[in-house]
Amino acid sequence: MSEGNKSLNFIEHIVEEDLANGYPKKQLRFRFPPEPNGYLHIGHASSICLNFGLGLRYNAPVNLRFDDTNPVKEEKEYVDAIKSDVEWLGYEWDIECYASDYFQQLYDWAILLIKQGKAYVDSQTSEEMAKQKGTPTEPGVNSPFRDRSVEENLELFQGMKQGDFPEGSHVLRAKIDMSASNMLMRDPLMYRVLHKAHHRTDTDWCIYPMYDWTHGESDYIEQVSHSLCTLEFASHRELYDWFLDQVVDPKKVRPKQREFARRNLSHTVVSKRKLLQLVENNMVNGWDDPRMPTISGLRRRGYTPESIRNFADTVGIAKRENLVDVSLLEFHVREHLNKIAPRVMGVLNPIKVVITNYPEGNTEWLKAENNPEDEAAGSREVPFSRELYIEQEDFKEEANRKFFRLKLGGEVRLKNAYIIKAESCSKDAQGNITEIQCTYDPKSKSGSGTEESLRKVKGTLHWVSVPHALSAEVRLYDRLFTDESPDTHKDKDFMDFINPDSLRIITGFLEPGLKDAKIGERFQFQRLGYFTVDPDSTPGKLVFNRTVPLRDTWAKIQEK
Ligand code: ATP
Ligand code: MG
Q: Which among 164, 220, 521, 552 is most buried, taking Cβ atoms within 10 Å?
């Protein structure tokens, strides 16, 4: 890990400063507060790693708080998915909390504010209220309902709660200051009427509290010490504090809000709303489509929790928004899978090789190392026979000296097996090569200890025995968007940049031992990349997802 990773991020500096100023360490408490209106994405992973990372660093509890104040967009399915994603990332929360559990407390506090003359029912349309808001340079105009009596406000607010009024007829507003320089302080909404069933409170409520009113008070109820959110809430901090001022008991922990920059990833979108659009328009096959930047999509793609956590750590926490290149995420998954993924052989774009001097009908089981990075991974046996598949790209009839793969008259080593020499090839009527005839050197068997087995030839190819090959569906993914930053164009919709070739499905031929591979198992297909077994697999037919191609170091070094 880099030096930067060892040093404290600016949020940790804030906590350190509080501790240095006498803040009791045992009062530290953090929370991760998703709204259950979609699946978590890689941007959320940053926030999860930040909050749970603070919990680990200071041995402090971290709550998982569902910010569920909008029944129109929220669902139990999302709650369940969020819980399993946080768990999968490897974190444990202290308390599973819901803002909806605080609806009664929030309502009681709202009544208190009305009684103190600090909140009122406004009966204008939202358009009328918007007109009175003013601009950053012009003060707003007071609502004609601003000076309603406490009694009238209480009666109307109770009526709102009982369902006496239609949606849009009344709202509850905080009575702050219509000429405040911060426009969010110009009598912000606290409640609206919404005749919608909620996934937890069902039809108990037909008024729902707004985010600003809910968030800080929920932090206070849970006694969260540091409430960390993304930068767009910086201007909300004043209101967060104002709402806290109304209810806070000085003997209790007063939460403080601090902001950090949202993380954006290149060639994708990190917004639940936009991801939902992709799902609803069938641009992808659901929230966990391996092309999605969701945690569940990355999991299905073959990412490990470690690789995502390492990515988040490396990227760190910033004060300013920026775009992180997706290749950094890919770097981290390669780095981790290189250590843990067993090596296997599979051919994705096959051409047949016939070894003319190898006995017909013979099969040899050759020893193959499972992972050169991990001695404990042991070895397995792979079948070798007279007919093999290699990759089409690994053969050329003629090539210059820098082509270290197979060419007519040239030799290569077959990984874990023999040295072969290409003697001739057959073609179809269109001139496409259909078969390569080779001879092998019987004394060159890998690991046999003979002089020939140690003989160096420049190229090493992967291969699969034709009669033993296991065919499988292989899904090759590319970036979902052709543009680096698809949702930042003023005149274009992000959907205009969808990559039409983001998924290619082919049939691959794999070594037969893979027939017992389990869903979620990860492998390195040698020289090709990392692959994982998709849940769409059935007992008769495996489906593999390519997590990420291998940086083809063999080819690169050999082609120099
Ligand atoms: P989205 O726009 O995707 O819905 P959101 O901020 O509305 O994002 P929430 O469910 O409210 O989603 O987010 C939960 C927490 O995750 C919040 O603290 C939020 O600030 C943080 N978060 C969301 N997106 C990012 C991101 N791209 N980078 C860092 N943190 C994020
Ligand atoms: Mg949100």
A: 220
